[in-house]
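Input record (one chain):
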Amino acid sequence: MATYSSTVAVSSGTYAAADVTIPFVPKRIRACNMDGGDVAFVSFDGVNDAAALSDNVLSPSSCQEWFSQLAVKVWLRTAGSAVQVQILAEA
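The corresponding structure, as predicted from the sequence alone:
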């Protein structure tokens, strides 16, 4: 099973170019807000929010998981201050 992991420093409040490109079509994608700076948002099309990741890293809502998403690009933005977001993918 192929796996991929990337931790991204997110400081923009808007979606621009994709922040992560997964080198295969994943069956599972997991995104986690790794610091308590602010809420992080995830998108798979660069337009629509797929999730808001809580800034409370002890909360289950700081991570979100998708199965059969089939997206290879992930866009990230923050609600305010810079955050670290980890993206994990499995084939």
